[in-house]
Write a structure and sequence with these properties.
The structure holds 2 protein chains of 2 kinds. Chain A is of the alpha+beta class. Chain A is built from 2 helices and 5 strands. Chain A is globular, with a radius of gyration of 12 Å. Chain A starts with a strand and ends in a 6-residue tail after the last strand. In chain B, strands 3, 4, 6, 8 and 9 form a 5-stranded antiparallel β-sheet that branches. A 4-stranded mixed β-sheet of chain B has the order 1-5-7-2, sandwiched between helices. In chain B, strand 8 and strand 9 form a beta hairpin. The chains are: A alpha+beta, B alpha+beta. Chains A and B meet through loops of A and strand 4, helix 2, helix 3 and strand 8 of B.
C-alpha cells in the first residue's frame, strides 16, 4: 500500500515548476531513500535529476537522513544552499 | 539574548545594534551582507532570495545557541535574512553580536555568518544585465548517499 507525499520545491527546483510542489507515491512505511527514488522518477529534466543527487529532504523543523522514515504528508526538498 | 528572523522588509542595522546592547557589553560587532554588482565576471542587476521560512528560523536559532555555548551565555546575538528580489546594494543579511570583550563578538559574529551560509535553507538566483538568470551553486545539506 502506498501513500502520497507532497514535496515542496525550493531554489533551482522551482525552475520550470511554477506550482512549487510535486506529489509522489511511496510505500506506506517508506523512508527518505524511497522518496528520493520516487522523485527521480517524477522529475522530467536531466538537470533536476542531477540536482536531486545533491539535495536533502526536510520537515519544517529538521533535515532528514536517507535512512529516516518519511514522517509527514508534506516534506521539502532542499538543493545545495547559498545564503548571504 | 537571541533574535532571528526572515523578512521581506528592508533590513535595519540600527535595530541590530539596538538588540546587541547592554551596559555589561563593551563590544558590539555588526556584519551587513549586500548584493554586489558582479559575480564570476558577470554583471549582476539583482538577486532573488528563496528560502524555507520555518526551517530557516529553526536553523538560525540553532546557530545562535551554538554561539552562546561557545562564546558565553550573556552574548546578545542577532541574525536576520531578507527574502524576495533585491537590487544591487541592498542588504541581504545582518548578523550582530555584543559581548563583554571584543574578541568574543568578533568571533561569534563571523561564526553566525559562516554557519548561515552552509546550513540555512536559502537559495539565490542572480539576474544579469544581459537578461539571463541563474541559480547559484551552493553547499549540499545531504548527509548520506
Amino acid at each position: 500500500m502506498n501513500r502520497s507525499i507532497n514535496v515542496r520545491l525550493f531554489g533551482a527546483f522551482r525552475q520550470g515548476n511554477p506550482e512549487s510542489s510535486l506529489t509522489v507515491e511511496i510505500p506506506e512505511q517508506g523512508r527518505v531513500a524511497d522518496l528520493r527514488r520516487a522523485m527521480d522518477a517524477a522529475l522530467e529534466s536531466e538537470n533536476a535529476r542531477s540536482l536531486l543527487k545533491a539535495s536533502a529532504f526536510a520537515t519544517d523543523s529538521a533535515v532528514l537522513d536517507d535512512r529516516d522514515p518519511v514522517p509527514e504528508q508534506e516534506v521539502s526538498i532542499l538543493p545545495p544552499v547559498c545564503g548571504g | 539574548m537571541i533574535h532571528v528572523d526572515i523578512t521581506e522588509s528592508e533590513l535595519d542595522p540600527l535595530a541590530a545594534l539596538d538588540h546587541c546592547s547592554s551596559d555589561a557589553h563593551g563590544a558590539a560587532d555588526l556584519f551587513v551582507g549586500r548584493v554586489r554588482n558582479i559575480n564570476d565576471g558577470r554583471s549582476v542587476t539583482a538577486v532573488s532570495y528563496d528560502l524555507h521560512p520555518q526551517l530557516c528560523r529553526s536553523i538560525f536559532g540553532e546557530i545562535c545557541h551554538e554561539a552562546l555555548e561557545q562564546w558565553g551565555k550573556d552574548l546578545h546575538v542577532y541574525l536576520v535574512h531578507r527574502q524576495g528580489r533585491l537590487q544591487v546594494g541592498e542588504a541581504s543579511v545582518i548578523s550582530a553580536v555584543s559581548s563583554g570583550h571584543r574578541d568574543d563578538s568578533f568571533k561569534a559574529c563571523r561564526f553566525l555568518v559562516e554557519q548561515m551560509k552552509v546550513r540555512a535553507p536559502i537559495w539565490k538566483q542572480e539576474h544579469y544585465t544581459d537578461g539571463d538568470s541563474e541559480w547559484i551553486k551552493g553547499h549540499a545539506l545531504r548527509s548520506s548517499d
